[in-house]
């Protein structure tokens, strides 16, 4: 284990407290329930939890409408329960990062209530107002089809207020220094209670200029440095993980040229092109996405990688033809799609429950450049419930066993229905069953996580996409501290044979397979010939298993590659 920059070789697990485990039998998951499942999570091998919002909220957007930043929603427990939970994580060496939702508040937040009541209120300027409805109010809505405008009339305030998201989520005026000071206070509060950082929600909107006069919002990147400095003063190894679905040309702005802004950013570019590659077996756009999102390494910067999360699979950055290809493969029906840009299903049903395909997808999550972020339930291949609205379909309770309500609660009426019946029902898909089955997806995931942790080259190293002569096969070589790892993936449902020049000119070393016994020696021409079965994948070490005897020490995160 490498002690420093823990997030570069972490395995992050994302969950919502409300749908994980209900300890007190009211049908809603809570911190006590989650705490009882920490041994499960530790056994799986995750090293960091990312909790969705759990603060008091009217819960009209899965908690992304916060009504009090300094508390725990009573549905989930108390601040005392939170501290017990965070202590229990610390005992197990598991870190916790939490959602920081500060682009907007709930309209029920006392700040907004005060602001709308009284134009003289000090909170008035914490939000964004206009006397007239701006002409571009119908533009830039985030949830097309559900949300109509970004400016809504507030009767009490007798003014329009700006909301980038739903109308019950008024935007905070984040340029206001008082608001900024308050946001730092919020971060300081949770750091004191034991968290190791924040997943910053909707960052491009947080830092955008806002107001009726703003035609083209500008990003105020300096704000990110302010957040970063504060967090690191308070807790040296705390990190910020940005949700910023932006173009590769501006990614670097979120990291900062000197690595002085966000340590981590989710890689949406790779995510979308990965799904295109899975749908089409054409890995070229994915390889390009990897190249254009290459961050200078080694350094403190790191990508967060994911397959699915709590939102829809956003395909908005693909070309229309590419998007259609992914829709056809993974979400052909209208009710599987959402907001004209994405697919709202879980991973396992998208991949037709095909174990070979699922392993391929997960193997990629664990071997592309960055830190893997898993979604709860994906380790057992949970499904979705398309009868639920919008993104709720992929947020159903965790399926623990084949007992009533999947072992999630003793109540008859859980927060969202537990998926029951059919190929993905809790009767068939549950953690208890899978842990008894040596070949089950759960145990496979546990083993792959274990191996991933032993390959810090992937999280830390430099990478090179190697030519394979086949569009369906992607080969990536990682180098770090005199050690090298090679991963090869066949995206096709047909077998492929490839010849790889792994080591440039010199004599290529033996490839030691890390997951099975078929090692590979170079042929006379120095190249390695591999036959990959449909959806086949390989993890190799170059040389031999004495690599730890050969590993050199290096600067911690330090110097950038020039
Ligand atoms: C982010 C969240 C999403 C939420 C939105 C508004 O995109 O991931 O779930 O609806 O922000 O807070
Ligand atoms: Ca409960």
Automatic annotation (TrEMBL):
A Pfam family the protein falls into: SupH-like_C
Q: Which domain of life is it from?
A: Bacteria
Every copy of the Glycosyl hydrolase family 13 catalytic domain together lies at: 14-416
What is the protein named? Answer: Alpha-amylase family protein
Q: Which organism is it from?
A: Azospirillum himalayense
Phylogenetic classification of the source organism: Bacteria, Pseudomonadati, Pseudomonadota, Alphaproteobacteria, Rhodospirillales
